[in-house]
Amino acid sequence: MDFIKIRFGDDLGMADTEIQGTTVEGVLRLFDPTYVLHRRVWKPPVNIYETAEEITVVAELAGVKDEDIHLEISRRTVKIAGKRMERSRMKNSRYRLAEITYGYFERALSLSIPIDTDGVSATYNDGMLEIHIPKLPPERKIRRIIIQS
Questions:
Q1: Above 50 in pLDDT, residue 2?
Q2: Are 127 and 109 in contact, with CB atoms under 8 Å apart?
Q3: Each residue's pLDDT tens digit, 49-61
Q4: 103-131: buried (b, 16+ CB within 10 Å) or exposed (e) per residue?
Q5: Residue ranges of the domains in the chain?
Q6: Does domain 42-88+96-137 have CATH number 2.60.40.10?
Q7: Backbone phi, then psi, for 93, in 5-degree steps?
Q8: Which of 65, 63, 52, 47 is nearest to 1 (CA)?
Q9: Are 43 and 55 in contact (CB under 8 A)?
């Protein structure tokens, strides 16, 4: 399935500002390709799927070693953090284009329902982190009320 980016709002002034920013960034990139490395913040892309029993979070973390990934789970939040180290390049080479961001990253995802933090499992294969998070069953407290007269 293809996803389409949608921009809401009818502020045409914002579009002009974005075009100017893109043009300026393009010029800076021409003169110094490493400009992009320092300016961009890396936020790994994430997909979240839900079934009746669990929530599955898949994060694309290409180039990150599994020991450099930190995963924290609370009752309503999933926090994925870590560090992607810069790959060494050939000696006496220089960048012509630098789009891959390196360094620290962090994603904090809020969940709309309480989860079972004890049952969470995670796997990391081929640059993809997959987290399986079981949902807590809905509370069904039934309380009998004694009517007094």
A1: no
A2: no
A3: 999 999 999 999 9
A4: eebebeeebeeebeeeebebebeeeebeb
A5: 12-41, 42-88+96-137
A6: no
A7: -105, 160
A8: 47
A9: no
